[in-house]
Amino acid sequence: MFEVIGIAVVAWFAFSIIRGLLRAKQRSSSAEFGLEARRIATQELFIPSQYYNYITTSRMDDLKLQALVLRENFSEFKRTSWPRLLALSLYIWFHNDCSKFHNDDLSRLQLFRQLHIEPDVIATTLMQDLENILSSHA
After folding, report:
1. Cβ contacts of residue 70 below 8 Å, gap of 6+?
2. CB atoms inside a 10 Å sphere around CB 36
3. Which residue from 113, 87, 86, 112 is spatially nearest to 97, judged by alpha carbons?
4. Which of 47, 63, 58 is nearest to 98 (CA)?
5. Distance (Å, rounded) from C-alpha 138 to C-alpha 136?
6. Longest dimension (CA), the chain
7. Is the pLDDT of residue 20 over 90?
8. By three-state DSSP, how is residue 79 classified?
9. pLDDT at position 23
10. Dihedral sign, CA of 130, 109, 122, 82?
11. At what angle do helices 106-115 and 82-102 cross, to 10 degrees?
């Protein structure tokens, strides 16, 4: 009887250790993906870091969904890394928000003022062709 209980306890303990290691690996991968997505967005796509912080805290689920749509619906993004897909999705959001700002959308005017995003950054973003930027960074 004690042997069965001992085996069950050892099995439960081993299972708990393995499960904990797998969860830690997932968390570290997620953090690494986040850092890489931030680097791509701010250094390659020139998205202001304050916008990056705002949009990732308020719309991360939507960004992930958009990244999946890019991967599933466009052949040029099939092999694109997950951090790059997230950064490109974020660029799409930023470009669209810049367009709304340019068209005097009150919510975007307030947001960009609150985030202290410079008008020249908005103008530069709007001068760039969205499709060309996406395809050149795929």
Report:
1. 77, 80, 85, 88, 89
2. 16
3. 112
4. 47
5. 6
6. 76
7. no
8. coil
9. 60
10. negative
11. 120
> How far, in Å, CA of 30 to CA of 64, rounded?
12
Q: What is the pLDDT of residues 42-100, one digit of tens each?
A: 999 999 999 999 999 999 999 999 999 999 999 999 999 999 999 999 999 999 999 99
CA distances from residue 131 to 10, 85, 95 in whole angstroms, order as listed = 56, 14, 11
Tokens found for residue 64: 């992930």
Q: How far apart are CA 15 and CA 56, in angstroms?
A: 34
Task: Give the pLDDT mean for 8-28.
Answer: 54
* Residues 37, 89 contacting (CB under 8 angstroms): no
